[in-house]
Amino acid sequence: DTAVSQTPKYLVTQMGNDKSIKCEQNLGHDTMYWYKQDSKKFLKIMFSYNNKELIINETVPNRFSPKSPDKAHLNLHINSLELGDSAVYFCASSYGEGLAGGEQYFGPGTRLTVT
Amino acid sequence: KNQVEQSPQSLIILEGKNCTLQCNYTVSPFSNLRWYKQDTGRGPVSLTIMTFSENTKSNGRYTATLDADTKQSSLHITASQLSDSASYICVVTSKGTDKLIFGTGTRLQVFP
User: Fold this and answer.
1) Which of A90, A99, A106 minimises the CB distance to B93?
2) A106 part of contact set with chain B, CB < 8 Å
3) CA A3, A89, B77: angle at the middle one, nearest 5?
4) Of B109, B106, B111, B112, which is closest to residue B90 (Cα–Cα)?
């Protein structure tokens, strides 16, 4: 019944490691997003994919690489993790291309802690 | 510079009372304005989306207003409930670039 799901919910890892976060939506949406929410609760978009194609790529270090195997999945791979990467990462999806499109549905978030 | 500012940063009210949260923005050109509710440990949930021509929109006990001339929006919560305790985030989309500009939110706590 879950609309947008993310795994894992919590991720604790050491600096320098490589990790992936997975996202899946069963809403039939054609656009998916990754957001980062820092300790001050400020949400910032990182990437947006429409029909498996990258349409928004904010100023994000190239250690972050999104991968969309199909319309229903958007995974986030992070190389050489740094302390500053600690945050909550949210996946979202919507109908329509671009952020001016339809209502966005968010996943429950993945809390990443880098030690 | 495109910005979205929310006030107050935090708010404490008693159950049953009304409250109003403010959002001022400098985003231009404007596409739409959204209000989200984010419970602790959960993802944001959309409450309302308003375009330039809409002045007010309701979703149950939540009523959002938009004044595109003064670039201000408010979210009014009527007869607050304990479950209204959450962060409320105002988000403005810039027309053309489709860039989403997030406010830092208002943390609302409702006490019995």
Assistant:
1) A99
2) yes
3) 65
4) B106
